[in-house]
Amino acid sequence: MTRPALTYERPETKAAPPRRPRTSGPPTARRRRMTGLVTITLFLLPALVLFGLLVLAPIAVAMYTSVFKWNGLGGLPTQFVGLDNFTRLFSDEVFLGDLNRGALLIGLSLLIQLPLSLAIAMLLNQKMRGRAFYRLLFFAPYVLSEVITAVLFTSILSPESGLANQILRSLGLSALESSWLAEPSTVMTSVFLVMTWKYFGFHMILYLAGRQGIPKELGEAAAIDGAGSWAQFRYVTLPLLGPTIRISVFLAIIGTIQLFDLVWVLTAGGPIHSSETMAVTMFQFGFKRSQIGYASAISVVMFLISLVFALGYQRFVMRRDTEGAITSMRDQR
Amino acid sequence: MTATIDGGRRHARPPSPRRHTRLKSVILHGVVLLLSTWVVVPLLFALVGGFKDNGQLSTNPFGLPAPWVPENYTSVLVSGSFWRQLFNSVFIGIATTLIVVVLSAMAAFVFARFAFRGRELIYTLFAMGLMFPFAVAILPLFVLLRTFGLLDNPLGVILPQAAFGVPMTVIVLRAFFRTIPREVEEAATIDGCTSFGFFWRILLPMARPALATVSVLAIVASWNNFFLPLVVFNDPNWWTLPLGVQQFYGQYSSDTARILAYVVLAMVPALAFYAVAERQLIGGLTAGASKG
After folding, report:
1. What value does the CA radius of gyration of chain B take, rounded to a whole number of Å?
2. Are A5 and A247 contacting, i.e. CB atoms less than 8 angstroms apart?
3. What is the pLDDT of residue A10?
4. Which secondary-structure segment (H or E) carries B33?
5. Whole-number mean pLDDT of chain A?
6. Is the dihedral of CA A114, A119, A125, A130 positive or negative?
7. Is B180 at the interface with chain A, CB within 8 A?
8. How far is B108 from chain A (nearest CA, A)?
9. How many A/B residue pairs have CB atoms within 8 Å?
């Protein structure tokens, strides 16, 4: 699943941290401080331990095992190989292909899927009959798991009796028939179509929510000044949707970097690696071929790509929206 | 109807605005209907296809089944494995949600209501968790879980899912807790309420809508999770629905009709849940984006 919405808050200008009153004399104040500390520790510790142990520690473990040659058996890895796994990674054509394919999917999402979602959100923002129903319907695929979606589409895209080819045949478009997922030249398009089917409704919902936050008066004022509907969209709605669009782009890219379920079930990365993603390659080496060290190196690279992307994006793209909500720690008191 | 009459009466004026809106509305409906077809056809194909046999699927792909073959559905429904997987998915989903919501609510309470050194540092650490894709941690997580002996154990899925849910839940709940006025807490303190009493008896009941939202998000994420159960559960007794669907698909790959029936039955709980909890789900997903 794509990571759902991020919540950001504007930085507080007034200093208003919750503070316990410090009016009374020393003994009570100290006792209060003590009980405060105990409460803080007791309340914070469980979440911190769980998070540290199962989110942060694995990343550290991956960094450690990525410098070993290790089949994962018998205690700790012993055969230290330095950065060999990484040099091997960047001369591995499959992995380099993963990067290309990831970039391709991201490009297609940004150029086709998100504009499509935006257009539909704008359409559904008009007054029309059945609007609520369409909204519900377009979002429905997002609720289905990627596995279910993928299994459904393997039967639709199957070469012999799949629905897609049957439809083309009955429309007299046999020339467009294809083996879709079984053909290196069409497999990425097919994966992208399935992705779009599942995720466009999610982005549509984001845009609709963002659109509802824009006061009607702005559009009306522009209309009075003679702006047509395109000009209203271009100069009023689109700029004001900026923050929503930037988050939607962020989620689409992070989601594509970690894409696994959908591709694994649709094609398992095939035919001949032509639809493999980083996560699929990592899974192949880590769980099928027992090259844990090498697969860890892939994990580490995925982590670094996500981290650099996320930090860079927050720093340079979403700066205006978040004012460093995540990247920089603000006024520590 | 009215548009034609009006159009006739006002034909002197260049483009009648009403005719214009009517044309626009036709185009609008056309586009939306086209899109609906694109969304619905695969689902309908699965639903109807499940009532066909494989011969019918290739000779009569579009029509209604003739005759209707309910065996695909009934054979899944009488098999124990489907119900077992459904139970596992529900159990793991509820357990994950309970853990993540309780722990995160406690942490969010501290972040929202106490000032202490290092607060922002720890909070930033949590928030950074949002940026780590699950797929990055799966392999070392597997190594860790194996060391702890948690493979083929539901805790091996529940605990990591809860841990990865913490960042989102803490962020949403902290934002909500902050909106509750300080006067409420002061009044409670004056009446002799401890911090814990305030948290338990006043803050949590007031935060019910936010708790519902984060619970729905957590349960959906757990329900759809595939990668983690895939590596943790070898024993079919623990398989969740996504694993079951994938396995069934591998086992009966040539029996398309049967697979379609299984897929449809596996969709039902998710769609039913969506119908019930649509408001919380969409509200939760858009909360951040609309605030931005």
Report:
1. 26
2. yes
3. 42
4. helix B17-49
5. 82
6. negative
7. no
8. 8
9. 316
Whether the predicted pLDDT of B292 surpasses 50: no
Q: Is the CB of residue B216 less than 8 Å away from at least one CB of chain A? A: no
Last residue of a domain, one of B71, B92, B108: B71
Tokens of A169: 């045949």
Q: How far apart are CA B271 and CA B276, in angstroms?
A: 9
A272: left (phi > 0), else alpha (psi -120 to 50), else beta?
A: left
- How confident is the model at residue A244, as a pLDDT? 87
Q: Which of B39, B139, B278 sits opposite A141 (nearest CB)?
A: B39
Alpha carbons A65 and B41: distance in angstroms, whole number? 47
Report the C-alpha gap between B259 and B11 in whole angstroms.
59
Residue type, A136: L
What ipTM, to 2 d.p.?
Answer: 0.85
Residue A13 has pLDDT above 50, yes or no: no
Residue B276 is which amino acid? V
Which of the listed residues B71, B100, B124 is the one where a domain comes to its end? B71
Length reported for chain A:
333
Domain that holds residue B24: 2-71
B14, burial (CB in 10 Å: exposed 0-12, middle 13-18, buried 19+): exposed
Q: Which of B97, B104, B96 is nearest to B123 (CA)?
A: B104
CA B271 to chain centre: 10
Taking only the tens place, the pLDDT of each residue in A176-214 is 778 888 888 889 999 999 999 999 999 999 898 888 888
Query: Do B61 and B105 share a domain, yes or no?
Result: no
Domain A100-277: assigned CATH number: 1.10.3720.10
In this structure, the answer to whether residues B125 and B228 fall within a common structural domain is yes
Q: Are residues B62 and B89 in the same domain?
A: no
